[in-house]
Design goal:
Helix content: 55-70%
CATH superfamily: CorA soluble domain-like
Largest sheet: 7 strands, mixed
Number of domains: 1
Shape: rod-shaped
Order of helices and strands: EEHEHHEEEEHHHHH
CATH architecture: 2-Layer Sandwich
CATH class: Alpha Beta
Distance between the termini: 64 Å
Structural class: alpha+beta
Length: 331
């Protein structure tokens, strides 16, 4: 569903109870949000649209520095993690699961995290299902209890959907491999090209996301020992996904080469057959051309049996050429 940039800059806000539940607050009622600030004792999560008017002004009012606000509302970002004295800036990317958009057009999520709260931003109309999973966990009372658990939960959901996308790519590659065995090749050229394009685009963001998660693992202010352990396991998963993407791309390249080779073989076989036919019929065409000239002095013009003898001679020439090609093992 497309969102209008005229909507409220804040998408939602939660006051976490530290027990896995959270109270969802109305972004259009400033009074209910008055306590959601980094100096307050309550843990909170605010989610914003960064491309809406007044977002920058309101984020500055939260006490964020200009450099942090700039990073939260930047239009072009790559995954990264910057640990500062006042907090940690994290930029992640998630698979675009909208049915009318390409999965490789990954959705950017920016987070500013301190032990007191989380502020996240994304572009209007770019809903991330991993965040929907978070809100559902809060509504059911099984959500994260700390900022560290929040980051682990979010990273796990992002990694899970990347894993689902990789499974889909592997299934498509398997289908292409089976079609190569059964010689259903022509229709697979566009499919292989799309797989290569998607794999390269996802890897472009997934590789720096791996580095960002490794940097986040070193943040002792946000993560407990258990959170760090879980996040390192998730980082290993992302590393494996990067390797799998590279493998998928290489498999697609190999299959494209195999497809080109088979198509070239087919074309060569067809050209070879045409060459053999030409080799047989070229002398016969020469004979018919010579005896078809309307000039005087051609032998057999006065004989009624000349055509028959010529036909027999041409048949013998064709048999002789066929035998020569067989003897040379050219056919």
């Amino acid at each position: 569903m497309t969102e209008s940039v005229s909507q409220s800059p804040m998408i939602w806000a939660y006051r976490l109870d530290g027990q896995g539940g959270a109270t969802r607050l109305d972004p259009d009622q400033p009074a209910s949000l008055s306590g959601l600030r980094f100096e307050s004792p309550e843990l909170f999560w605010q989610h914003w649209r960064y491309d809406v008017d007044r977002t920058e002004q309101l984020l500055v009012a939260q006490g964020l520095s200009e450099s942090v606000v700039e990073a939260l509302i930047a239009h072009e970002t790559r995954p990264r993690c910057v640990v500062m004295e006042s907090g940690t800036l994290i930029v992640l990317r998630g698979i675009n699961t909208h049915p009318d958009q390409d999965p490789e057009d990954m959705i950017s999520l920016r987070l500013w995290c301190t032990p007191k709260g989380i502020i996240s931003t994304r572009k209007s109309g770019r809903r991330l299902l991993s965040l929907i999973d978070l809100t559902e966990s809060f509504d059911s009372g099984t959500g994260p209890r700390t900022v560290g658990e929040f980051l682990v939960f979010l990273t796990e959901r992002l990694a899970a959907r990347i894993g689902e996308f990789l499974e889909a790519i592997n299934e498509r590659l398997q289908a292409v491999e089976e079609s190569l065995i059964t010689d259903e090749m022509a229709r697979q050229r566009a499919n292989l090209a799309e797989i290569r394009r998607q794999s390269a685009a996802i890897k472009r963001y997934l590789a720096p996301q791996r580095d960002a998660l490794e940097a986040l693992c070193r943040s002792r202010d946000l993560l407990s020992e258990a959170d760090t352990f879980d996040l390192r396991n998730l980082t290993d998963r992302v590393v494996r996904y990067v390797e799998d993407l590279e493998l998928c791309r290489e498999r697609a390249v190999v299959m494209q080469d195999e497809l080109r080779n088979r198509l070239a073989e087919q074309q060569n076989e067809r050209m070879y057959v045409l060459s053999l036919v030409t080799a047989i019929f070229l002398p016969l065409s020469f004979l018919t051309g010579v005896f078809g000239m309307n000039v005087g002095g051609l032998p057999g013009t006065e004989s009624g049996s000349a055509f028959g003898w010529l036909a027999i001679f041409m048949f013998m020439v064709a048999i002789g050429l066929w035998g020569l090609l067989r003897w040379k093992r050219w056919m």
